[in-house]
Amino acid sequence: MARQRDRTNVYILLLAILIAAIAGYYLPTKRPESGTSLTPKEYIELVERKKAQRLKYAAEEKAAQDAQQSGSQ
Predict the structure, then answer these.
(1) With helix as H, strand as E and coil as C, how does the chain read?
(2) Contact status, residue 43 vs residue 35, Cβ threshold 8 Å
(3) pLDDT digit string (tens) for 20-66?
(4) 37 contact partners, CB below 8 Å, separation of at least 6
(5) What is the C-alpha to C-alpha distance for residues 3 and 15, in angstroms, rounded to an integer?
(6) Structural domain range at position 45
(7) φ and ψ at 39, to 5 degrees?
(8) Which residue in 20, 43, 48, 64 could disulfide with 38, CB within 3.0 to 4.6 Å?
(9) Total count of domains within the chain
């Protein structure tokens, strides 16, 4: 009975290692963009990029709405 239990523990360990290896391979390696691990210069650049992206999306959305309104009239 004890021998069967030892094998079960080994199989569980091997399964956990296999899952960890697969997860490590398939999970993205790119670190998330957050201000916690950036230098001040990098953080300012990040904020500027995000602001430019928000402005770009807002302009595209406004253009799409204007096109939709002028198309319906």
Answers:
(1) CHHHHHHHHHHHHHHHHHHHHHHHHHCCCCCCCCHHHCCHHHHHHHHHHHHHHHHHHHHHHHHHHHHHHHHHC
(2) yes
(3) 999 888 886 666 666 667 788 988 998 999 999 999 999 999 988 88
(4) 31
(5) 19
(6) 2-72
(7) -75, 165
(8) 43
(9) 1
